[in-house]
């Protein structure tokens, strides 16, 4: 998107505001699909937790992708967006048997990641096909908080517990139609990913009636100019060759599944905020914006990098700024970052704001969550209104019991 488009959106819809470029989502989907074009059966299930706006889900659905969901609410959003139940996979962690049963009743593919629920569900619903999430005991990912396939992770059933799984399957007579893994996010080294895949291939040979193998996702996207990223084309070539070979060994053409989230939407997103104040101290120049980690928590949570540009003055002389928010705690988006000279009232744009940004936002400090806008075929479409005071209090119940307390005290 061009700066003039972003400025026009900020002027029309106010700030802060999230903007998503549909063309980038489409191109990323096509890029991933093309990397595995030699696979006979490929299924890409978008990870809804990355960005769950209904308009985004409808766009994803129109491309032919399914959905990877982690809560019954995400399943309901997918159904609301018109996605067919058979194209939705439910991969929760630590949820109740009742929630899994409720989702299953909707016709959604169930993915179970612990022995206890697997046995309970198989005993009650032996005729319902189930996918099993395995833990390959592989440390991968760009941050310890997003590495989920290592030995101490709460996710998945350990590969060393396969005998327990087989015992449950035999005792219940349940059908396992898929196996799954997800090692983490921001995976750069494709050899680590391929090594984990080999573990899953070996595991798959224990189950004779599989329809698919889901290898998760976690592909790294670039966060700044010249940044490194997962070589999807190389990975696609190597993985396709190995998967096709495995299918021959298995004696059946299985579906190859992935669940991209960040890969599809991260680079499509921009977060626009207005600079409220320039504050110079003895050692730092702060640019304080009309937002905070209540709207974009990733820098404070993951130490993630978001490139920040001054779209009001993009060609100005560069100076060093620490960009901070208005939350009354440490609320830093960037420290000593080179940005074109900023004056109060300028609009700054955060890049890579499509994934895990709005979806992790909150009303902390009783602030409103911002609007969301979709930029599609040269037009801006409002896809979520900015919250108002009524949104803050709509579920609160105003009780009148304290006047009696005051009388008693008096």
Automatic annotation (TrEMBL):
Enzyme Commission number(s) of this protein: 4.1.1.20
N6-(pyridoxal phosphate)lysine found at: 49
HAMAP family (alphabetical): LysA
Family according to the record: Belongs to the Orn/Lys/Arg decarboxylase class-II family. LysA subfamily.
Record-linked SUPFAM superfamilies: Alanine racemase C-terminal domain-like (SSF50621), PLP-binding barrel (SSF51419)
Residues annotated as catalytic: 328
Residue ranges annotated for the Orn/DAP/Arg decarboxylase 2 N-terminal domain, each copy included: 24-266
Keyword Lyase: yes
GO annotation terms (biological process): lysine biosynthetic process via diaminopimelate
Subunit (UniProt): Homodimer.
Positions bound to pyridoxal 5'-phosphate: 218, 356
Segments passing through the bilayer: none
Catalytic activity of the protein: meso-2,6-diaminopimelate + H(+) = L-lysine + CO2
Keywords for this protein: Amino-acid biosynthesis, Decarboxylase, Lyase, Lysine biosynthesis, Pyridoxal phosphate
UniProt protein name: Diaminopimelate decarboxylase
Pathway given in the UniProt record: Amino-acid biosynthesis; L-lysine biosynthesis via DAP pathway; L-lysine from DL-2,6-diaminopimelate: step 1/1
Summary of the function given for this chain in its UniProt record: Specifically catalyzes the decarboxylation of meso-diaminopimelate (meso-DAP) to L-lysine.
InterPro entries, alphabetized: Ala_racemase/Decarboxylase_C (IPR009006), DAP_deCOOHase_LysA (IPR002986), De-COase2_C (IPR022643), De-COase2_N (IPR022644), De-COase2_pyr-phos_BS (IPR022653), Orn/DAP/Arg_de-COase (IPR000183), PLP-binding_barrel (IPR029066)
Residue ranges of every copy of the Orn/DAP/Arg decarboxylase 2 C-terminal domain listed in the record: 18-354
Organism this protein belongs to: Aquimarina muelleri
Keyword Translocase: no
Any one Gene Ontology molecular-function term assigned to this protein's record: diaminopimelate decarboxylase activity
Residue numbers binding substrate: 298, 302, 329, 356
